[in-house]
Amino acid sequence: MTIRVGLLGYGTVGKGFAETIQSHQERLQNLLEGEPVEIASILVKNPTKKREFPHSSLVTTDFNELFLQDIDVVIDAIVGEEPAFSYCKKAIESGKHVITANKQMFAKHGKTLKKLAEKCDVSLGYESTTVAGTPIIRTLSQLLQVNRVERFEGILNGTSNFILTRMKENKVSFDQALQEAKDKGYAEADPSNDINGRDAFYKLMIVSELIYGKQPNWNEVFVEGIDVIRSDHIEEASFMGKKIKHIATIEWKDGDVRASIQPIALTHHHPLYAIDHEQNGVVIHTDLAGPLTLAGPGAGASTTASGMLEDLVHIFQKTNRKTHQLL
Ligand SMILES: NC(=O)C1=CN([C@@H]2O[C@H](COP(=O)(O)OP(=O)(O)OC[C@H]3O[C@@H](n4cnc5c(N)ncnc54)[C@H](OP(=O)(O)O)[C@@H]3O)[C@@H](O)[C@H]2O)C=CC1
Ligand SMILES: N[C@@H](CC=O)C(=O)O
Fold first, then answer.
1. What is the ipTM of this complex?
2. Of these residues, 15, 96, 168, 203, which one is catalytic?
């Protein structure tokens, strides 16, 4: 049997996903009992953009047409809450697995989709919503089940960290560094949420749901982006041996979840001090294992495809095992 994918979006992430399926087809088949993975259909918004698609895929601007292509899994690589939420919901209700990289949609609707997936007995992968292919989600959900997470802090936005690093190390202007982040595919097409802290906020809310089973009241979370940082702030911090980093923190305090997102000047003693460029990093403070640091690329086509493909293999290995148990 072939695993047939319905791909929503063909921008940085969607195209990266499709190309990685091609480049890693043999490896995927080895992991999936010989089953090939094929992009059956691709949904785009603008049909007039000049670009090349995989030969065998149907390309459409109509979700219903994509859906008619007998697909097993929907990959959400589009932007924003809607129509992504409605598409994912419909896919799950129709018995399709879903994998999403869309943190804005998932921060708000993740809980609903998780419940629905459980009810409909399908899988929902969201590794790439948070720190792209660096496996934060699976570490928290599967490798730290006995440990209690007392506090979580992280650099969760690749674009912000890239800009801060370029401004400090190479003295480039904010605007030039942002343009470079766009050219490299780290920044969103509209980078407002990258630099105003909102992107890191969405990721932190996804982590909060996972660790504590709930999110703080969104209106009570202090969110400040790197758009308040000027080069003299960076130089001042540097003079004192510090680096400004955009830090998202969440912890359980006084019976509730407390979160904040802001630029902070870190000394070299802090585990996130050395995380530069588009790298992201998190420190997970656990009661048994102690503080655990995980770092890796947080933005870009191939790392995001990596997280989504790990989700895909995890889902279909599980599905295959279930099928075998039934026989
Ligand atoms: N870039 C990155 O490093 C990462 C991005 N993400 C998330 O992944 C998702 C995709 O990001 P990215 O690839 O960078 O974004 P892009 O802007 O590069 O691509 C978005 C794609 O989605 C399509 N699209 C947007 N809205 C619709 C719609 N309503 N109907 C159909 N198609 C639509 C666009 O179509 P068209 O091309 O026709 O305009 C485009 O192909 C986002 O949610 C982002 O937050 C997550 C991790 C990392
Ligand atoms: N624009 C985002 C992409 C990944 O989520 C970032 O810069 O981190």
1. 0.99
2. 203
Residue of 13, 129, 134 to test ligand 1 pocket, by largest number of atoms within 8 Å of CB: 13
In the reported structure, the alpha carbon of residue 299 is separated from the centroid of ligand 2 by a whole-number distance in angstroms of 5
Instruction: List the pLDDT tens digit at each of the 327 positions of the chain.
Output: 899 999 999 999 999 999 999 999 999 999 999 999 999 999 999 999 999 999 989 999 999 999 889 999 999 999 999 999 999 999 999 999 999 999 999 999 999 999 999 999 999 999 999 999 999 999 999 888 899 999 999 999 999 999 999 999 999 999 999 999 999 999 999 999 999 999 999 999 999 999 999 999 999 999 999 999 999 999 999 999 999 999 999 999 989 999 999 999 999 999 999 999 999 999 999 999 999 999 999 999 999 999 999 999 999 997 766 655 544
Q: Which domains does the chain have, with CATH numbers?
A: 3-132+302-326 (3.40.50.720), 136-298 (3.30.360.10)
Q: Are strands 243-253 and 149-155 parallel, antiparallel or unpaired?
A: antiparallel
Q: Give the 3-state secondary structure of residue 58.
A: strand
Q: Is 18 in the pocket of ligand 1 (CB under 6 A)?
A: no
Q: Is 96 labeled as catalytic in the residue annotation?
A: no
- Of 133, 188, 160, the C-alpha closest to 298 is 133
Distance 278 CA to ligand 2 centre (A): 9
Model pTM score: 0.97
187 CA from centroid of ligand 1 (Å): 11
CA-101 nearest atom, ligand 2: 5
DSSP string, 166-234: HHHHH---HHHHHHHHHHTT-S-SSTHHHHSSHHHHHHHHHHHHHHHSS---GGGSEE--GGG--HHHH
